[in-house]
Amino acid sequence: MLKIALVTVVFSLLVAGGFWLNWQLRQPSHDRNWQPLYATLPEVTREEGAYRISNIRNWSYGPDKSTTPGWLDATLDPAELVDVYFIVEPFGSMKAIAHTMLGFEFADGAGYVASVEARRTVGQAYGGLKAGVLPMHEYMFVWATERDMYANSTFFTEDALYVYRLNLTAEAKRAVLTAMLDETAQLQETPRFYNTFFSNCTNVLARAVNKVSPGAVPWSISWHLPGYSAEYLIDRGLIEAPDGSEAVRAKAHITPHVEDLYEIEDPTSFAQGLRERLWN
């Protein structure tokens, strides 16, 4: 029995050592043969209190999953920010598994989405659990128009979408936007590895917010299991749910609206039309 236990310990140490060595030997890089959706990094620069962001994705998606690439630039002024939205894209039937994003509405009606995503090279699939133990992907901030991001989920990946307005002060809203833009700028200079559990779509966002507002998003299991994140924010009062979580979730479901409004090609007009349906 002692011999079996010793062999088990040695084997476990060798496996753990192999994983550790993988992370040490492979260096993150922006220079790979990326799939088109992940090939172009946004570029952020400061401009007199505002931020200039280039390479905002504004693609169109056909019913046959064809894509028409498009990009635009914008100046994002925190003083012009109206609202911040928390977006949940569930995957499959497991409640714990989802993708999360942040949306930003501005006074001119424009809306943009910031999404932390695992970059994939040509021919590479998302690593899932394997990406929790091996350095399979770098991650990037995707900045996209609402029309692009919501259509990508609705028509391209065919996932449901839920958009929740966050209950934040004006100062907190500006802090969240600033955190996302600053983090995007830092990532331009320093590539980083994605990790399914520790550097994913949710906890990268949470840590970025905590950098500018310490303790604003305390740790919870939803950092690692994003499907529980909306309930966590409801419990903390960051999503208002006067009629209960199921009622607010039903109202937050935007997929039918995206399908109805997608013929509106102008991204600002699309965003305005969507908000009229959701909040008026």
Low-confidence stretches: 4-23
SSE string, helices as H and strands as E: HEEEEEEEEEHEHHHHHH
The proportion of strand residues reads 15-25%
Strand neighbour order, sheet with most strands: 9-8-7-6-10
The span between the termini is 70 Å
The oligomerization state is single chain
Specify the structural class: alpha+beta
State the shape.
Answer: globular
- Figure out the total of helices: 8
Mean pLDDT: 90
Rg for CA atoms: 20 Å
User: Percentage of helical residues?
Assistant: 25-40%
Q: In total, how many beta strands?
A: 10
Described by strand count, sense and barrel closure, the largest sheet is:
5 strands, antiparallel
Topology:
Blueprint: H1 2-25, E1 43-47, E2 50-57, E3 60-61, E4 67-68, E5 71-76, E6 81-90, E7 98-106, E8 111-118, E9 139-145, H2 146-156, E10 162-165, H3 170-189, H4 203-212, H5 229-235, H6 245-252, H7 255-261, H8 267-279
Antiparallel strand pairs: 1-2, 2-5, 3-4, 6-7, 6-10, 7-8, 8-9
Task: Describe the protein.
Helices cover 36% and strands 22% of the residues. The chain is α+β, with helices and mostly antiparallel strands and 280 residues long. A hairpin with a 4-residue loop joins strand 7 and strand 8. Mean pLDDT is 90; it is low at 4-23. The protein has 8 helices and 10 strands. The protein has helices spanning 2-25, 146-156, 170-189, 203-212, 229-235, 245-252, 255-261, 267-279, and strands at 43-47, 50-57, 60-61, 67-68, 71-76, 81-90, 98-106, 111-118, 139-145, 162-165. The strands form 3 sheets. Strands 9-8-7-6-10 form a 5-stranded antiparallel beta sheet, with helices on both faces.
